[in-house]
Recover the amino acids of this structure.
């Protein structure tokens, strides 16, 4: 497996990346065309860095970073690994390569918004009153099956929350990591 800049990918590989995105995050990108449009838009802005994990010429995961706050902060958007290739260190490899890229560009903070919106909610933030003792709830946060568990493994901490971002009881969870 190698990590490759997505500007170097051919059309077939861009299609593979779009398929991974719509399969992995169908709430955000319900159709293949939505996912393809997202990739094209991200690739259109040279400020973004997009990296793909490529195995035998096939894209099995990818992620992007977008500069914010005059380049002090980079937002991870999105990150997805093909479902049959998860839990094999590929997400970590992509994210660490993106962090390194952000660091090289002078980034101080990496951030990601992770919606807790699937089903009845996966984390301990789901269906609770986040206006009541949020510090206590952050202290006792439990990711359950949610992807925030992955980010926490990689050293990310909860830096904020947007209550009801995806409907009642379905928050967006902000995670961040210091890059220096
Ligand atoms: C989140 C995602 C990118 C992780 O990719 P991955 O390739 O499976 O992750 P890795 O194998 O590199 O995992 C790195 C570590 O995190 C752990 N981990 C992975 N997913 C996890 C989860 N959901 N909860 C808790 N820990 C998790 C792994 O066990 C591994 O731990 P280890 O180093 O102790 O062995 C992948 O599950 C995915 O594409 N999910 C669907 C899309 C998504 O939710 N994207 C993020 C949107 S914010």
């Amino acid at each position: 497996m190698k990590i490759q800049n997505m500007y170097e990918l051919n059309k077939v590989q861009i299609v593979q990346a779009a398929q991974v995105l719509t399969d992995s995050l169908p709430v955000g990108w319900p159709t293949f065309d939505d996912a393809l449009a997202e990739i094209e838009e991200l690739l259109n802005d040279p400020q973004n860095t997009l990296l793909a994990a490529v195995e035998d010429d096939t894209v099995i995961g990818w992620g992007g970073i977008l500069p914010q706050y005059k380049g002090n902060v980079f937002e991870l958007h999105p990150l997805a690994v093909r479902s049959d290739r998860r839990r094999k260190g590929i997400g970590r490899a992509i994210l660490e390569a993106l962090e390194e890229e952000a660091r090289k560009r002078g980034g101080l903070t990496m951030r990601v918004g992770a919606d807790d919106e699937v089903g009845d909610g996966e984390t301990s933030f789901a269906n609770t009153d986040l206006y009541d003792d949020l510090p206590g709830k952050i202290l006792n946060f439990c990711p359950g099956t949610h992807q925030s568990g992955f980010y926490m493994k990689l050293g990310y901490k909860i830096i904020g929350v947007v209550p009801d971002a995806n409907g009642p009881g379905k928050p967006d969870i902000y995670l961040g990591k210091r890059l220096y």
Remarks:
- The radius of gyration is 16 Å.
- Strands lie at 2-5, 49-55, 58-68, 73-81, 109-115, 157-162, 172-178.
- The chain has a mean pLDDT of 98.
